[in-house]
Design goal:
This protein has helices at residues 36-39, 46-54, 114-122, 143-149, 168-179, 289-292, 311-319, and strands spanning 5-8, 23-24, 30-31, 63-66, 83-86, 91-93, 110-112, 124-126, 137-139, 155-156, 165-166, 183-186, 192-195, 203-207, 213-221, 224-232, 244-253, 256-266, 268-270, 285-287, 301-309. The chain is an alpha+beta fold. It folds into 2 domains: 63-126, Herpes Virus-1 (2-Layer Sandwich); 160-333. The strands form 7 sheets. Strands 12, 14, 15, 16, 19 and 20 form a 6-stranded mixed beta sheet that branches. Strands 13-21-17-18 form a 4-stranded antiparallel beta sheet. β10 (155-156) and β11 form a beta hairpin. It is elongated, with a radius of gyration of 27 Å. The two termini are 49 Å apart. Pathway: Protein modification; protein ubiquitination. InterPro entries: Sina-like_RING (IPR049548), SINL_plant (IPR044286), Znf_RING/FYVE/PHD (IPR013083), Znf_SIAH (IPR013010). Keywords: Metal-binding, Transferase, Ubl conjugation pathway, Zinc, Zinc-finger.
Length: 334
Amino acid sequence: MSEQQKRVSTPENGHGGKRPRALASPDGGVKQERRGQAEASQGGEGEGAVVAVQAMDDPQISVRISVARLHCNACLVPLKPPTFKCEAGHVVCSTCRGRHGQGCAGAGAYAACVELDDIVRDAKVPCAYEEYGCTSWVVYHKVVDHHRTCRWGPCFCPDSSCELYASPARLAEHFAAHHAWPVAKIAYGKPCKLAVPGPQGRQVLVGEGDGCVFLVSPCALGAATAVSLVCVRAGGDAVAGAPQFRCKLWVEVEGNKENLALVTSMVASSNLSGGFVAAEQGMFLAVPPELLHDESGEAPALMVRIDRAGAAAAAASARSPSATPPSKLPKRLQ
């Protein structure tokens, strides 16, 4: 973390018509903005008032604390419970308890730091991508994992003449407003029909439900055209829990049932820092000139189907049993 000190809390915006919250006072007491709620427990509506007071969230405060107090004295990474203190007073994480003795003569015995565990378990900081739109407060020792999957992690505009650095959601708006790239919503598990973009054209797809942004980008490949699809996000680490996707890309001409170009692959993630050239990706669809310029004169169609994969697919299936199954694809693509 770049700052030497960080706030620790999960404050909520007390405006906008939200119910009054308890406020922590410096002397350790708790003020109620409407003390009458507690006093009402003495009267005829006492039972309901007591329930209202008990239902209030725990009061929260913002404080500043030295970062060193939340880091292991041995490995120097953020502490996570359970924590332990050696006889010399060094606080270490569970992993370092067995090897701290190499650098500390007082590491013969350890005591569990139960009170510190409670603090470490609850200490939160604002997401580093707050300025890009993320409003999450993250448990301090989980910050790295959160940043790997945060949907607000900033990405680059792939246009070489543009220097915008923003969240994927804001990039999608920028693509439409400043570059006139078509933006369309796509339902997972269902084919989406697009025009085959020219070598310099791009298409933007936004996933229904989760708002994930996908970029369909073409480039010349000799006489053919290469088309690739990427998920626009700063982090796509499956281990950290980022949603994973697979896709099918195919090009067909309605009046020509004999020829078809198709590719299926997992969807890669990119922050687009180096632009996005389809032919330089690991997987891309090569559309031959025979499909680009069919004898019938019909314009070819680019079909895109994106499916959730892994844990994201299981979660989506549990939420929506009626989701379109693979058998809904055209027969020749099954």
